[in-house]
Amino acid sequence: MLSVENITKSFTIHHLDQTRKAIGEINLHVNKGEFLGIVGRSGSGKSTILKSIYGTYMPEEGAIMYHSKENGPVNILEINDYELIRLRKTEIGYVSQFLKVMPRTTSLELVTESLLEMGESKEHALEKAKDALRHYDIPESLWDNYPNTFSGGEKLRLNIARATVKAPRLLLLDEPTASLDNDSKLKVREAIARLKADGTTLIGIFHDLEFMDGLCDSVFDMSDKALRYVQ
After folding, report:
1. Is the C or the N end of the chain the one with fewer CB within 10 Å?
2. At 24, is the pLDDT very low, low, confident or very high (cuts 50, 70, 90)?
3. Dihedral angle of Cα 223, 227, 228, 229, to the nearest 10 degrees
4. Residue 143: which region, alpha, beta or left (left: phi > 0; alpha: psi -120 to 50)?
5. What is the pLDDT, as a whole number, of residue 137?
6. pLDDT at 185
7. Residue 202 to residues 33, 158, 170, 195: CA-CA distances in angstroms?
8. Contact 67/1 with Cβ under 8 angstroms?
9. What angle do CA 45, 56, 79 make, to 5 degrees?
10. Could you tell me the CATH number of the domain that includes residue 71?
């Protein structure tokens, strides 16, 4: 499903006139329907890998080959903006610790729009969106409210609901449970397990390694850039 081939990414700090390498010579692979976990200390470049796969960052070297449903194998680093946006809408989901949305869009509208992008009918999308909000304990009283009024935990649960409800072919998870309580973490785990059972391919970063037990098929360790399969 996805191969990250020898990518390198650096950042320039202009006011210090410095260039710092974030990741170098990263190689990892994940098969369709598998869950790959990425582990490593803070600052080791885990999020940089995910953002490169999603197309937010552009590595200087290497390739990121993704087997798309519509066009077959494509290099994420070479496709145009239109093709990248289309992949994000229809095939590749991304969940971070932070919710960034258009202003004056309600929580129910956000989740519903995610499904409309997948070609769902408006009626079906609305019902699935409501089910997702209920699953992640977003109170019905907040469905017609704007997310900028939500607590941090509510924003994060909404962010997860918006991504998982689409059941994307590839889902990237960047520490999505970092600020959640245990009950909410269990709901996220339940949703991830269901997506995996239904064929979604997942790549995730979790500092809570116990959360990953029984979910991951393989683990990429940033300390030695090694990919290991879980027995």
Report:
1. C
2. very high
3. 150
4. alpha
5. 87
6. 85
7. 7, 19, 6, 9
8. yes
9. 120
10. 3.40.50.300
Query: What's the CA gap between 68 and 186, in Å, rounded?
Result: 30
How confident is the model at residue 149, as a pLDDT? 83
Contacts by residues 188-197 (CB-CB < 8 Å, ≥ 24 positions apart): 188/136, 188/160, 189/215, 191/135, 191/160, 191/164, 192/35, 192/164, 195/164, 195/167, 195/171, 196/33, 196/35
Residues 6+ away with beta carbon under 8 Å from 198: 167
For residues 180 and 162, membership in a common domain is answered with: no
The per-residue pLDDT for range 65-118, each reduced to its tens digit, is 999 998 899 999 999 999 999 999 999 999 887 656 666 889 999 999 999 988
CA dist., res. 93 & res. 71, Å (int): 18
CA distance 170 to 184: 22
Work out the mean pLDDT of the chain and round it to a whole number. Answer: 90
CA distance 34 to 196: 7
Region 115-141: mean pLDDT is 92
Domain residues for 210?
Answer: 2-91+168-229
What is the number of residues in the chain?
231
Collapsing DSSP states into helix, strand and coil, what is residue 198? coil
Do residues 76 and 32 both lie within one domain?
Answer: yes
Clarify whether residues 155 and 192 are in a common domain.
no
Residues 177 and 161 in one domain: no
